[in-house]
Each structure stands twice: as structure tokens, then as C-alpha cells.
Write a structure and sequence with these properties.
The structure holds 2 protein chains of 2 kinds.
Chain A lengths: L1 H4 L3 E5 L19 E5 L5 E5 L14 H17 L48 H13 L6 H4 L10 E3 L7 E4 L4 H4 L7 E5 L2 E2 L3 H9 L5 E9 L2 E3 L2 E4 L15 H9 L2 E5 L2 H7 L8 E6 L7 H4 L7 E5 L8 H11 L5 E8 L2 E8 L3
Chain B lengths: L1 H36 L4 E3 L2 H11 L3 E5 L1
The chains are: A alpha+beta, B alpha+beta.
């Protein structure tokens, strides 16, 4: 690793206070993210992924990072002859160039960190950029668009898992998934996707992030000693299968549409006891927020252990992630949504205030 | 009166715990800065100097957000 590090100019950025959003576009929910770039700003690739609340680094390894670094060095050696090939990896145009340009952050961000005092309080966290982006829509009473609600989708959304010890080697293909239908197999090494060189799973997520609601993605993969070229067909709404419940940015969404409740899918026993079928909504309240707007559900009468069986008239099964996304795309601040809960065997109807 | 005292004690405990956690995080950030500032192979929170070094040495950049 030291030999690899010495071939880079390494810089550690610790805050988003003055983050150049025209340049650094990545998954803002991560606690560890890497860009490989030329000094002229051209991006070679990204590294860093996450899909768990508790374990932020489960899908990252030093071995995998080293392989991504080696691939970045190869791209650097061929630069600028390969500049056209790197076009898709570059940042997209954005309306807000700095975090302080967002209405909800304006005037609230310190220009530099207060190392002498409460330094973490003076730090703008990366996830607050995504929060601010979504807040614009919520404040205007508009649905948060899919692209903002399901950013940097995990490859699991198309049925792929990658080996964290490798650059981009498929470790598992979910049966009946989009990737399985395209003929992708476990052990395939992904070389390019959508015409972009893939240095890591983060690069796959960058491709998915910038892919439209319905599209065909051409992949180039190494399978043993031969090259295969599957086409991954994404149909309308594919992005909505992403799980956003692990993300730090789901915290403000919970304030908006659950009044501070945290859910977990009901167990089979809980469903059976409450008389709820497998295809019906059944989410157990795991935590009830206690303070400020996160205590709105508490004030409305919700309790830990309540089983949610209907939300704004919806009775079909939803995951915690699906309920959050349904809420922020179908309710407006100021509304009061009827929620049915099962508590001690009895059904209760409660009114949950929708918030900004 | 007793209930009010209980609430006040609870709030005080929450505040003390929160301040303690905050303090620990602040210390960790300061220690991290101190350690990385001593390491010649890393630029700490200074993208401009890192970019200038990359131009000068013709090396690629590894920009880590952490």
C-alpha cells in the first residue's frame, strides 16, 4: 500500500463547509470516499461504498482500495490520450455550486473549522448537502424526485454484489434479477459499464446514479480468459428498489413523514398475532423520537412496539425505505395522515402530522 | 415537585452525556489533524496545495473524504 500511496499526491478533506459541488459529486452518506483525479480536475474514478447503518466499512477493504488505486495509476499513465474515454466520469452540471448556496444552509456555515473550540459543531457534514437539496422540494410542497431520493444506487438494485477485496468482481448475482437476465455470472470482472472504466463499486454506483429511469447499460466483462458483453436492461422505476433506510439522510425524511418514528419490518409471529397477511403493510415501531419535530409522532400518541398496518390509506406491504419514499413523494407539510396501528391486539387510528 | 426534579435531573444527565460525547469527538478531530499534519505524504484539508504538488510532480491525486 505504501508503494501505491507514494505514487499519488494524497489529500485528506475533512469538511464540506466550502465543498466545490461542481467538482466533488459522490455519495454524501458515506463516511469514507475517495476520488482519483488528475491535477487538471479530470476524474479517473471513485472509491467508497456503504449499505449498512452499523458497519460503515463492511464493503470496503484495503486490498480492494489498492486494486482501485492501481487501476487509477494505469489511467493516469495513458492520460490525456484517454480523456474522451473518461468523459462519463466527470461531474454533471449543478445549480448550487457551494453548500452555502442552498436556501436551508445559507448563513449557517462557518467558513473554517474552529479547532480551538467545538470543532465538530463548526463542521458541515457531507450528508447535509443532500438534506439541503431535498429540503427545497419539501419546503415547496413538491415530491422529492427519484434521482434525489435514491442517490448513488447500490448495484444490489440490479441484483449484483461485488467482492470488496477486488476492484469490481461480481461475487453474487441474485436470481431473476436484471443482472441475471442479462447473463451476468458470479466471478465476472466488470471492466466497463455504460462506456465508463470501472475502478470500483463506487464507479458502478456513479454510472447508475446518472442513468435515466428506463435505459440499457452495456457492460464489458472478463469471464475467465474471454470477454463477454451483457446488456443490462433497466425498466421504469428501477431506482425505487434502492434501500435508503440505512442512510444518514433518511433522518430528516423520518421527521417529514413519520414524525420521528423508526420502523423495522414485522416478524412472521408479529404478523400472525395481529392477523396481517404477508402482502400487507406491517412495520413495527422500533423507536419514537423524543425531541422537537422528531417527537411529533410521540405527541400524536404513537408508542414503541406499535404495529403500523395502514399509512395514508396504503395497506400493501412496504419496507421502511418504501414507506419513507412514499411519504415524501405523496404528502405535503401541514397535512395530517391517518395511520392505523395494532397495539395490544386492538386497532387504533392516529393522525400523524406531515412536516417540513 | 418530585416529578419536576426528576425531569431536571434527567435533562442534566442528557446534557452531560451529550457534552461528553461532543468533547470526545472534538478531541479525536484535533488528534487526527495533529497526526496527519506531521505526515509528509498527506496534505490535510488543503486541496489547493495538493493540486499544486500534483502539477509539479505530474502525479495523480488521491482525494480522501473522511
Amino acid at each position: 500500500m505504501k508503494r501505491l500511496i507514494d505514487q499519488f499526491v494524497c489529500v485528506r478533506l475533512v469538511k464540506a463547509n466550502d465543498l466545490d459541488l461542481t467538482r466533488f459529486q459522490f455519495d454524501y452518506d458515506l463516511t469514507f470516499a475517495v476520488f482519483f483525479a488528475n491535477a487538471d480536475g479530470t476524474i479517473y474514478g471513485r472509491y467508497g461504498t456503504r449499505s449498512s447503518v452499523k458497519d460503515a466499512t463492511r464493503e470496503m477493504t484495503l486490498a480492494g482500495l489498492a486494486k482501485s488505486m492501481a487501476a487509477a495509476l494505469t489511467l493516469h499513465k495513458r492520460y490525456p490520450a484517454n480523456k474522451k474515454f473518461l468523459a462519463g466520469k466527470q461531474p454533471v452540471e449543478v445549480k448550487f455550486k457551494k453548500p452555502s448556496d442552498y436556501p436551508s444552509l445559507r448563513g449557517k456555515i462557518a467558513k473554517s473549522l474552529n479547532y480551538q473550540g467545538a470543532v465538530t459543531k463548526s463542521c458541515l457534514h457531507c450528508h447535509q448537502v443532500r438534506d439541503a437539496e431535498r429540503q427545497i422540494f419539501r419546503d415547496a410542497g413538491k415530491p422529492i424526485p427519484d434521482e434525489l431520493l435514491f442517490p448513488q444506487p447500490s448495484p444490489q438494485v440490479i441484483g449484483l454484489s461485488f467482492d470488496p477485496r477486488e476492484r469490481a468482481t461480481v461475487s453474487r448475482v441474485e436470481q431473476e434479477s436484471v443482472a441475471a437476465r442479462a447473463g451476468v455470472r458470479s466471478g465476472d470482472r466488470l471492466l466497463t459499464l455504460g462506456g465508463q472504466a470501472i475502478l470500483s463499486q463506487a464507479d458502478v454506483q456513479w454510472v447508475l446514479h446518472n442513468t435515466r429511469s428506463s435505459a440499457e447499460l452495456r457492460a464489458v466483462m472478463q469471464r475467465g480468459d474471454r470477454i463477454v458483453r451483457p446488456t443490462i436492461k433497466l425498466s421504469e422505476g428501477w431506482r425505487r428498489h434502492s434501500d435508503i433506510s440505512w442512510r444518514v439522510t433518511s433522518w430528516p425524511l423520518r421527521r417529514m413523514v413519520t414524525g420521528g418514528l423508526l420502523f423495522t419490518p414485522a416478524t412472521k409471529v408479529q404478523r400472525h398475532t395481529a392477523g396481517v397477511s404477508d402482502d400487507s403493510l406491517a412495520l413495527t415501531v422500533k423507536h419514537v423520537g423524543q425531541y422537537g419535530p422528531h417527537a411529533a409522532a410521540k405527541r400524536a400518541g404513537f408508542k414503541k412496539g406499535d404495529l403500523i398496518v395502514s399509512y395514508s390509506g396504503i395497506r400493501k406491504a412496504m419496507s421502511p425505505s418504501e414507506l419513507l419514499s412514499y411519504g415524501v413523494q405523496n404528502t405535503k407539510p401541514g397535512q395530517r395522515v391517518e395511520v392505523t396501528v395494532v397495539r395490544n391486539g386492538k386497532r387504533l387510528k392516529l393522525k400523524l402530522p406531515m412536516q417540513k | 415537585m418530585k416529578r419536576r426534579m426528576d425531569v431536571m435531573l434527567f435533562l442534566l444527565l442528557v446534557m452531560v452525556q451529550s457534552a461528553h460525547a461532543q468533547n470526545k469527538r472534538d478531541q479525536a478531530v484535533r488528534a487526527d489533524k495533529k497526526q496527519l499534519s506531521k505526515d509528509d505524504s498527506w496534505f490535510y484539508d488543503d486541496i489547493e496545495s495538493a493540486t499544486a504538488a500534483a502539477v509539479k510532480t505530474k502525479r495523480p491525486m488521491m482525494i480522501v473524504f473522511r
